[in-house]
Specification:
The complex is a heterodimer of chains A (about 500) and B (about 475). With about 500 residues, chain A is an all-alpha fold. In chain A, about 75% of the residues lie in helices and about 5% in strands. Chain A starts with a helix and ends with a helix. Classes of the chains: A mainly alpha (about 500), B mainly alpha (about 475).
Chain lengths: ~500, ~475
């Protein structure tokens, strides 16, 4: 099978799966079909690794900074400089696999339990559409196509929050949260649109491969383009102070929605920052790096401090995402090989761990019907397995060495120290302090939820876990261990493209 | 110079057919006096007009009624696009009128005759080569609508709407005519291309205050027709008072007519560095005011009316980038404006078709709450309406609307009007707020009081299906529209 075929299949399988799910009238059968489609997508996504074109045939004096393993390039709308140009390399592949995996777990979980609100098959269809949008964003090598896929995600996610979400405070709060999500992220993506066409009209091409390095763009264009693109991606990531849609959306979203949202949707922002903003406008990136670094550290500190004051389980995890994404952005802001590698592995680790945390939080809320930390305590007395998993995920999230969360945070700090200078050393110190705060709020969470005497909602819990729950969680637990013990799983494939990218940043 | 003009009847064929449709409808109504026959004659005539426009437009550009090099009737690719689209919209509106005509309170013959007359104006409009033909065509498009708007018998709102529309429109036409007369006084010409050449060659004419006044009057008068701010106040009241299908026609065919007329004068005749900044300002005001006011609307048709005011702003925006841009960027801007208009009228027609289908026969648009949960009762029609609304907001899966926005932003950035591009972007966010509210309402739980609504009329559902299908096709292949608009 050729690589181009695989690339198209990665998008076509979930898209056709969504259509099939919508067409099948029987609810359970449709959900199973959707899960099968998600599983096939994961298989195809992993297969992308095979037969990759590593021996890049250099044309011209300098090889391009983006060297996809496989690519497809077909004209679509020449009048708008839009080409159907897909490609995968070491930067995007781990995220593609992560997306396919989390979608599969979410679809499988939905086979077992459908959150109240709507039909299960509609939910599975929407999850698959979201998957198409996210995968397309990671695979697009054309700026306009990238924007297009970026937009695809918005409304299905809105529908998931409105249709199946809710934290028991009534439909108005749910609608408000969903609308906030939609408007905020649309604000980001229209800036992306303007930024994209600013670049396209100045450079005359939308090909990311040709544009990476930004050689043809004037300094003024690069500064303007980077500003627009960075704000656009900062909304999605989200970077403080543009994060306020995130806690509401997470609190109201159903479990599977939260998992996808935190697990991979946010990564579209950080991935876009690395691939598009930094790649296309390196001059602008160098100019804005200190600002980005300061904001990233502010996000780490503020996210952690806010977490210390949270009283609601899902909200706390949501705010912890702000802090974790701060580390990722700090890594990117250093513009060094170490920093960008840290960002990539931080991305993947956060996707795995926070996905797991949201699954567990959803399970706790489903059982106890409350998310208030004050009403939860003594989980380990009545549900030791659930409590153990929560402890594992929380410890992974706070960055214990040997688990996945460690590498991204530690090396983001290391990269900042490597850059040197008073500013970056200060940032590194503050970020490290933020790491300590992260430990503080996660341990506080564990103390409140798992220790103590069982509260009334917790007292009646049964200790067992459903098979579907285990099936959804075990892969994430194993991956947390695997990435933590062997970070080369991610870094091995990413090293060459990151080196090439850093090369053009010089 | 020969005083005998040769008339190219092939170029005029679509116009003949459109005018013939009107006459035929009148005769059929007189002789047979049967509803089905009258409507059938109108539909057949509209179809024939579409076919003729496509067939003639596929060939070379045809010019006729020429004096020397100046021609009053130029039927090229763009004229064919406009003619075919107006006839298509007339056909669609005819389909939407099915329930209205069936309930017996509306005179079928008059309705179809007036619609066909208006269609004739639209068909000629795209080909107009001089200011008089242009203004007459616009008037032929608008005049029958004064009566159509007032057709809801016994409705005070309808009568009010008709009077408002009539007064405003007549004043607008007068302004445009005065502007045309002043332009004639300055340049001694009425042919669009000749006007453009004269104003470009003799730049001292531009310093005359009279020229500026003339340009402003022409633009202002035509801005009334597209309901651009500050000439927009008639639109919401008129749309809301008119029967739903007529409101659909007003916000699609009539708006398209205004846009085409504006394009014609701006592209060929008027000096760019006078018209550009004026249009940029009008576009900026139009989209912002339209969107902000639409946020507060609680009546369905008023929401659509204000949103279509905002959409007119997006259409005009590329024309605002004219002043600074080079010729390439300019022709791109004209194409972008027309392409946006094409995408917009398709989606707008679909949106109106959805509303008509979900409302009882002959009813007005009602309140938004009347449509609560409608998509749960009628999943297909509801999905069509939601698709159109999302398209109007410019988001996937409404790819047609997304590409429309992309086209406009691209032409603005190509024309060094980055500030306007940012404004379009911000407005798209405001627009999503109300489109999303509307679309979400369709899927909201109905609560305890299920609204009584019969099955959607089949012919309306068919119109919705066709409009949605076309929107989906051009959504995946927007190059089709871009090519036609650019030709």
């Amino acid at each position: 099978m050729s690589g181009g075929f695989l690339l198209v299949a990665v998008l076509a399988v979930p898209a056709l799966g969504a259509l099939a799910v919508a067409a099948i009238p029987r609810d359970l059968a449709a959900r199973v079909v959707g899960t099968v489609a998600a599983a096939l997508t994961l298989v195809v996504a992993i297969a992308l690794l095979a037969g990759r074109n590593l021996g890049w045939v250099a044309y011209g004096a300098t090889p391009p900074a983006v060297r996809p393993w496989h690519s497809v390039d077909v004209a679509w709308v020449p009048g708008l400089d839009l080409r159907f140009h897909l490609g995968v390399d070491g930067i995007s592949w781990p995220l593609v696999v992560l997306t396919a995996l989390l979608t599969l777990l979410c679809c499988g979980y939905t086979c077992w339990r459908v959150p109240p609100g709507g039909s299960g098959r509609a939910l599975v269809a929407l999850l698959l559409v979201v998957e198409v949008g996210i995968l397309g964003t990671f695979l697009a090598l054309d700026l306009v196509l990238f924007f297009l896929f970026f937009e695809v995600v918005l409304l299905p996610m809105y529908a998931i929050i409105v249709g199946w979400g809710g934290d028991g405070t009534g439909p108005a709060a749910r609608r408000r949260a969903a609308r906030k999500f939609a408007l905020y992220t649309l604000f980001g993506s229209v800036l992306l649109l303007v930024g994209v066409y600013l670049v396209v009209t100045a450079a005359g091409t939308a090909d990311i491969v040709a544009l990476t390095g930004g050689t043809e763009l004037s300094r003024g264009t690069q500064l303007a383009a980077f500003t627009l693109l960075a704000v656009a991606f900062a909304v999605k990531s989200p970077l403080w102070p543009l994060h306020s849609w995130l806690p509401d959306a997470h609190t109201q979203a159903p479990t599977v929605g939260s998992v996808l949202l935190a697990g991979v949707l946010l990564k579209m922002g950080t991935y876009g920052l690395i691939r598009v903003a930094v790649g296309v406008a390196p001059e602008g990136a160098r100019w804005a790096a200190p600002v980005l670094g300061v904001l990233a550290v502010a996000a780490i500190l503020i996210g952690s401090l806010v977490c210390l004051a949270q009283t609601e389980l899902k909200r706390l995890i949501a705010y912890s995402s702000v802090g974790h994404m701060g580390f990722v952005l700090l890594g990117i802001a250093t513009l060094t090989g170490t920093g960008i590698q840290a960002a990539l592995i931080g991305n993947v680790a956060h996707g795995i761990i926070t996905g797991l945390l949201f699954f567990l939080a959803g399970a706790i809320k489903d059982r106890t019907h409350t998310g208030a930390l004050s009403e939860l305590s003594g989980l380990r007395e009545t549900a030791p397995r659930l409590s153990g998993l929560l402890a594992f995920a929380a410890v992974a999230s706070l960055g214990l060495p040997g688990l996945a969360g460690f590498w991204g945070e530690a090396f983001a700090v290391v990269a900042a120290v490597e850059v040197g200078g008073a500013l970056w050393i200060t940032l590194a110190v503050l970020a490290a302090l933020g790491g300590a705060l992260t430990a503080a709020y996660l341990l506080r969470l564990l103390r409140q939820v798992t220790h103590g005497r069982p509260s009334a909602p917790v007292a009646g819990l049964k200790p067992g876990l459903a098979g579907a729950e285990l099936a959804a969680w075990v892969p994430l637990v194993l991956l947390t261990l695997a990435v933590g013990l062997a970070p080369t799983l991610v870094l091995g494939v990413a090293e060459a493209p990151v080196t090439a990218l850093v090369e053009v940043l010089r | 110079m020969s005083m005998v003009q040769s008339v190219d009847s092939v170029a005029l064929l679509p116009a003949y057919l459109a005018a013939g449709t009107a006459v035929l409808v009148l005769l059929v109504d007189l002789v047979l006096a049967r509803r089905a026959a009258t409507v059938g004659a109108a539909a057949t005539g509209a179809l024939a007009t579409i076919v003729a426009a496509v067939a003639v437009g596929a060939g070379e550009e045809r010019r006729t009624f020429c004096v020397g090099a100046d021609c009053s009737y130029v039927f090229g690719g763009r004229a064919a696009l406009v003619a075919a689209l107006v006839a298509l919209l007339a056909l669609g509106v005819l389909a939407l009128s099915g329930p209205l005509l069936r309930d017996g309170t509306t005179p079928v013959g008059e309705f179809c005759f007036l619609l066909a007359c208006s269609m004739t104006g639209g068909v000629v409009l795209g080909a107009a080569g001089d200011l008089i033909t242009l203004i007459v065509a616009v008037e032929a498009l608008t005049l029958p609508l004064y009566v159509l708007v007032g057709l809801r018998r016994g409705s005070l709102a309808s009568a009010e709407a008709a009077v408002t529309f009539f007064v405003v429109s007549v004043v607008a036409t007068t302004l445009t005519l005065l502007g045309a007369a002043l332009l004639y006084a300055v340049t001694g010409s009425l042919h669009l291309e000749r006007l453009g050449t004269i104003l470009a060659d003799r730049s001292e004419l531009l310093d005359l205050p009279l020229t500026t006044v003339a340009v402003t009057l022409v633009l202002g008068g035509l801005a009334f027709k597209v309901a651009a701010v500050p000439f927009h106040a008639w639109a919401p009241a008129t749309y809301d008072g008119a029967p739903l299908p007529v409101a659909a026609y007003l916000s699609t065919a009539s708006k398209l007519g205004g846009v085409v007329a504006l394009l014609a004068v701006v592209q060929h005749a008027l000096p760019n560095d006078v018209a550009g900044p004026v249009l940029a300002l009008v576009a900026a005001l139009t989209m912002t005011v339209g969107n902000l006011v639409a946020l507060r609307q609680r009546r369905t048709v008023r929401l659509l009316a204000w949103s279509s005011v905002a959409q007119a702003g997006y259409i005009l925006a590329p024309l605002g980038a004219l002043a600074l841009a080079d010729p390439d960027a300019r022709s791109g801007a004209y194409a972008a404006a027309l392409a946006y208009a094409v995408f917009f009228v398709l989606l707008e027609l679909a949106a109106f078709a959805g509303v008509v289908a979900l409302r009882p026969a002959g009813a007005d648009g009602g309140h938004l709450d009347d449509l609560r949960g409608a998509a749960r009762r009628h999943p297909w029609v509801g999905a069509g309406l939601a698709f159109a609304l999302i398209g109007l907001a410019g988001l996937p899966p409404g790819l047609a609307g997304l590409f429309a926005k992309v086209t406009v932003v691209r032409s603005l950035l190509g024309g060094d009007a980055g500030w306007l591009a940012l404004l379009v972007a911000v407005n798209a966010v405001i627009g999503l707020a109300y489109y999303l509210r509307f679309a979400a309402l369709l899927y909201a739980p109905t609560g305890d009081a299920p609204a009584v609504a019969g099955r959607p009329a089949r012919v309306v559902a068919a119109a919705l299906a066709v409009a949605t299908l076309i929107a989906v096709v051009v959504g995946f292949a927007p190059q089709l529209v871009l090519d036609l608009a650019g030709s």
